[in-house]
From TrEMBL, chain B:
Coiled coil: none
Keywords, in A-Z order: Cell membrane, Membrane, Transmembrane, Transmembrane helix, Transport
SUPFAM superfamilies (alphabetical): MetI-like
Localization per record: Cell membrane
UniProt-listed CDD domains: TM_PBP2
Segments traversing the membrane: 12-33, 67-91, 98-121, 133-156, 177-201, 233-255
InterPro entries: Bact_Polyamine_Transport (IPR051789), MetI-like (IPR000515), MetI-like_sf (IPR035906)
Annotated protein name in UniProt: ABC transmembrane type-1 domain-containing protein
Annotated membrane topology: Multi-pass membrane protein
Predominant location: membrane
Domain of life: Bacteria
Amino acid sequence: MNGMSLRAASRRRPGLRFAALVAPGALFIVIGLMLPLLAIVVFSFWRTESYELYADWSLDNYRTLLGEAAYRTFFLRSLVTAILVTVICLVCGWPVAYFIARHGGRYRLLLVLLLAAPFFTGVILRIAALQGLLGPVGLINMGLTMVGLPPIEALMYTKLAAGLGLVYLFIPFMVTAIYLSLVNFNFELLEVAKINGARPWRAFIEITWPLNWIGTAIGMILVFIPCLANAVTPRFLGGPEATSLGMSLAGQFGETGTWALGSAMGVFLFAVSLLAIFCIAPTIRLKRSGFTGTSLT
Amino acid sequence: MRAGPATLSMSAALGLLYVFLYGPIGYVIYTSFAVDIVWPFPPSFTLQAYVDLFSSSLYSEALTNSLTLATGAAVISTLLAAAGAIGILRFRSRYRTAALLIFIAPLFVADLLIGISVLAFNARVLGLPGNLFSAMAANAIQGTAFGFLIILAQLVRYNWDMDDAAMVFGAKPLRCFFEITLPTIWPSLFGAFLISFILAFNNLEISFYTLGAIPTLPSVAWGSLRFGLGAELFALAALVNGFVFLVFAVMYLLMRLGIVRFGYRGG
């Protein structure tokens, strides 16, 4: 087909041009993400013996996972931590995102990029630095000791320290998601509400919050899911009481080499993540989002 | 406009968040100059870490690998995300919702899970050892999703009538893209590139499982944890941060002087 007739054909059929633009990315994600996920679903029904996978189909891995008290504890710990961290990020992230979107002016992009810049320093270094601030020989506790006060034991290798580490790592995602929704929000609506006598809080609850729920929901998911599967933070900040399911999962693919059980844990975590998404997705209505006024419905 | 108490407290929240985020980074930079990195007080400074950093080949190799990985992942992500976002916003199709869901799906899979599943797939299905390209692709999956979200959020307000007008006057789609669309949307592409670059540059959990024995900055950090973090890593992080802040300072000046607006169209 020569260029002219291709153009003519595509002008008649926008579906063709849609496919040409969308297909490469969609295929890339399907092949690069979905196939590997499918692979671990398959492996989760197999068996590992001395670092080798054998295709003996059974539910043994899931039985181990759900049956052993240790794994249940790890999972519940991960779940509770993830929920708490999400709520903290939400409460602390909203005012910041609102401020940047509303009052950031021409420096908005720069202010948002400043939230992303910490990622240039690796997770491990940042966590080591947090440890340097919070740990037993850290700045805060040594400083307290020096002026004759007792150190804050709650910050030394505890679940609280691990949770603080997670907030530290993931709050930029929450702020960015809310911000991306707020930049499409028409702040003039608030003026209208004000003229009609609504107090600022009422305007927030009835206008700003519901119309930006999509950003909030995406932010919550973006914080909740990596926190649920996190392995690095509890390992370095949490001490012996903070072992998470993610740490155990990483161990199955590392030291112990039991890939089949690890795959089952991965599938389980993925299922819980999907459950969280299915809980929150119905609450999102694109028509009642900041994206109103466009054809994206 | 006078700032009310609500605005003031929100700006305080922003300030506190920056302090929280940059406290540990300041600590890293401070410690990189310290004689004793475990307990760097009272201050006593040395440049030994920087001397060691430049005399060791491991760190420059890791930095090169991290940069290659991040650049590759960011280029792939930006191209795929931009094409996807434009396709979904501009052309009607009954597969639109499905495509939208596929593009944001990677956001909902944890790094660790992407890492181990790509590892399992490469090792047991394809029989591939860890390599830079599969790490690049694995990082680009996530980058594509983040880039897509960023571009989509900025592009929903874009007025496609301008493009249609150009087409009516006979511009070919490519020319139309480069002369009409790109000049308006480049800040969002830039944002998508930057975010996917940053995420891939220091990604630990995806890269760790897909790279095998190839060292990148996070895997070197991970490996050296067993013997305690090397002061060289602190020095390297300090240099990277210095460079990033330099870039931000230049951006700030450009915006301040009004040379580049980065998509801001207000007064």
